[in-house]
């Protein structure tokens, strides 16, 4: 959370364009597909949520973590995660309460939003106390404390109709400011890989493969729209951050990956007994972008050069030995 605050106006501006363009693309797809309001809101969330896990892995595998655009990408990811947290709180109030009353939905949504904001504000003030609890702990006690905090926060968020994933995200944002962050990362990395695989596996088991054919066309259109919107938001982000124009495709293609949060919102729709097309749509949509986005990111420089040509680099004149002797003689 502290890194997002320090990132500055450029990332906030780029993140705002990113959220606005992708959210509007979700409204467009919902209208084209003729979906009701609740289903359209779920689609908006799916098309706005980038996959932090895929983005981080792509940047690491391509050795781009030290590139100038990477700070912008990670800042926009954090901005997007905060928006998704608020959007899921809205979806929880809209879909999971089972009430059609405006005031009931609004009350549940505001309660969830208040929980998120309070956790972000108060949680950062509790970091020193958490560090004192973690100090001089053995590996076993350290693990127990971290997972106890995680499950308490996730369980409490579930009781107020906020997805447990958002509670876990809030806990992670707070612990990111801890002085023991490196030790925490080493602890949770093996669990992340294992439970991440189980998460996608369990979701795949709940889908009927025969139902996917009807969603291929709409999901393909949505994937194309997402890539275009992300490149556009990447252009604004690179412009406000003082980066080169070619960095816009690096940012846009990297952020185009979709994954865990899109599936979480689809599961909210399933729990609320929304139209089954949402499940089929998200499977094909996530599958396309989780494959295509990393490939586009890998070839982003070549794609830019093929369309706009290579950036002109001014060649400095090479000084000969005679030139150096003349300069020394002066």
Give an account of the 3D structure:
With 330 residues, the chain is mostly helical. The chain contains 16 helices and no strands. The longest helix is centred in the first third of the chain and has 29 residues, at 68-96. The relative contact order is 0.15.
Mean pLDDT: 82
Tally of extended strands?
Answer: 0
Count of DSSP H/I helices: 16
CATH secondary-structure class = Mainly Alpha
Helix content class = over 70%
End-to-end gap? 58 Å
Oligomer: single chain
What's this model, at a glance?
This protein has 330 residues and is mostly helical. The protein has helices at 2-7, 9-32, 37-48, 52-61, 68-96, 102-125, 127-134, 139-159, 164-175, 181-205, 216-241, 247-255, 260-271, 277-298, 300-308, 321-329.
Show the helix and strand layout:
Layout: H1 2-7, H2 9-32, H3 37-48, H4 52-61, H5 68-96, H6 102-125, H7 127-134, H8 139-159, H9 164-175, H10 181-205, H11 216-241, H12 247-255, H13 260-271, H14 277-298, H15 300-308, H16 321-329
Helix pairs in contact: 2-3, 2-5, 2-11, 3-5, 3-13, 5-6, 5-12, 5-13, 6-9, 8-9, 11-12, 11-14, 12-14, 13-14
Main location: membrane
Transmembrane segments: 12-34, 72-96, 102-121, 141-157, 216-237, 274-296
Pfam family, one: Na_H_Exchanger
């Amino acid at each position: 959370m502290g890194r997002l605050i320090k990132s500055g106006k450029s990332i906030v501006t780029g993140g705002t364009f990113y959220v606005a363009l992708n959210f509007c693309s979700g409204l467009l797809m919902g209208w084209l597909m003729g979906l009701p309001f609740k289903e359209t809101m779920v689609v908006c969330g799916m098309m706005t949520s980038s996959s932090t896990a895929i983005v981080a892995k792509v940047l690491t595998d391509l050795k781009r973590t030290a590139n100038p655009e990477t700070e912008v990408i990670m800042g926009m990811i954090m901005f997007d995660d905060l928006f998704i947290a608020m959007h899921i709180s809205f979806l929880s109030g809209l879909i999971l309460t089972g009430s059609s009353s405006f005031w009931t939905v609004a009350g549940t949504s505001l309660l969830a939003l208040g929980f998120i904001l309070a956790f972000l504000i108060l949680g950062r003030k509790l970091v020193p106390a958490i560090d004192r609890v973690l100090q001089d702990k053995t590996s076993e006690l350290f693990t127990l404390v971290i997972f106890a905090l995680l499950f308490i926060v996730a369980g409490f968020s579930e009781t107020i109709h906020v997805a447990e994933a958002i509670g876990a995200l809030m806990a992670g944002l707070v612990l990111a400011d801890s002085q023991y962050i490196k030790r925490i990362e080493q602890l949770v990395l093996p669990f992340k890989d294992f439970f991440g695989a189980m998460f996608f596996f369990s979701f795949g088991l709940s889908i009927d493969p025969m139902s996917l054919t009807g969603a291929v066309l709409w999901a393909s259109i949505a994937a194309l729209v997402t890539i275009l919107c992300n490149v556009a938001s990447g252009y604004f982000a690179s412009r406000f951050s003082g980066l080169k124009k070619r960095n816009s495709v690096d940012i846009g293609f990297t952020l185009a990956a979709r994954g865990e949060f899109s599936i979480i919102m689809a599961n909210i729709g399933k729990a609320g007994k929304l139209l089954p097309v949402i499940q089929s749509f998200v499977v094909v949509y996530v599958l396309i972008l989780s494959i295509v986005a990393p490939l586009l990111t890998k070839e982003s420089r070549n794609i830019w050069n093929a369309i706009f040509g290579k950036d002109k680099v001014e060649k400095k004149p090479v000084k000969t030995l005679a030139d150096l002797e003349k300069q020394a003689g002066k």
